[in-house]
Amino acid sequence: MSNLFDIPLPALLGQLLLGLVNGSFYAMLSLGLAVIFGMLNIINFAHGALYMMGAFIAWMGLEYLGLNYWMMLLAAPLIVGVLGILIERLLLQWLYKLDHLYGLLLTFGITLVTEGLFRSFYGVSGNPYPVPDALQGATNLGFMVLPNYRAWVVVASVVVCLAVWALIEKTSIGATLRAGTENPKLVQAFGINVPRMITLTYAGGVALAAFAGVLAAPILQVNALMGSNLIIVVFAVVVIGGMGSILGSILTGLGLGVIEGLTKVFYPEASATVVFLIMAVVLLIRPAGLFGKEK
């Protein structure tokens, strides 16, 4: 265990930034999970596989078609969103009235199939994805050198997360979505196509995962297992924040990323388990999560 005064400030701030970057991915992925669970009542275990697919689509767009990062940042979420529409219409729509376990098992099966396909074509070794020219290099802040791309990841993630939160919580569209999940028959009586609304909600949730995957591609090696390595932590984030809580997912994701980063400085042995320790404590004190509603 390290002493606070023994650690150089640049090293401490660098680890804090790394934690904030990880927290940005946790926030975006847990936000998508929270939206899907809150609106569809489905535990989407395929979220990690769709995050991986977003990164791979960006890599394939560059490798095979020469499409740059900015184009794929828009295209990959749209492609995965269309795939989400197919998944919801063909598979998930039959499970909404059943126990959560059925949705979990189905999406877990989708994960295994998706990862197996990508592993059979591309193996498990990482495929590098270059940082776009506009975001290469770093900025010297005086007390530390800040990589431009990592700063972009944090800013982009926070902006997207807050935009989704505002859409769901502060607009008439969000109010209609919430009403449609709580009382679909009443909402349909006003002429609103609830099944289509639910389908688009799932597509939007998985598109967030793909967006996070494209952001992660230049930082991580793009590989078939990158989603499975992250999804367990993201589920813990959702549980801590409160299942279905949009704001809880965002704040908890960012906060736990920072805590994990600081743990790597002061007590590295605990960095892999600190999120799960926090989850256990939170569930003992508040079973619904920090921002969840007690039933």
Oligomer: single chain
Give, in spatial order, the strands making up the sheet with the most strands.
1-2
CATH architecture: Orthogonal Bundle
Name the structural class.
Answer: mainly alpha
Text of the CATH class? Mainly Alpha
Task: Please indicate the percent range of residues in DSSP E strands (runs of 2 or more).
Answer: under 5%
State the total count of DSSP E strands.
Answer: 2
Describe the main β-sheet briefly: 2 strands, antiparallel
Cα distance, first to last residue?
A: 41 Å
Describe this structure in a few short sentences.
Helix content is 70%, strand content 2%. It is built from eleven helices and two strands, in the order H-H-H-H-E-E-H-H-H-H-H-H-H.
Give a structural overview.
The chain is mainly α and 295 residues long. The protein has a single domain, classed as ABC transporter involved in vitamin B12 uptake, BtuC (Orthogonal Bundle). Helices cover 70% and strands 2% of the residues. It is built from eleven helices and two strands. Strands 1-2 form a two-stranded antiparallel ribbon. A hairpin with a 4-residue loop joins strand 1 and strand 2 (145-147). Helix 3 packs antiparallel against helix 8. The radius of gyration is 19 Å and the shape is globular. The model has no long low-confidence stretch (mean pLDDT 86).
List the helices and strands and how they pair.
Elements: H1 9-40, H2 47-65, H3 69-90, H4 100-122, E1 138-140, E2 145-147, H5 148-170, H6 172-182, H7 184-189, H8 194-216, H9 228-241, H10 246-266, H11 274-285
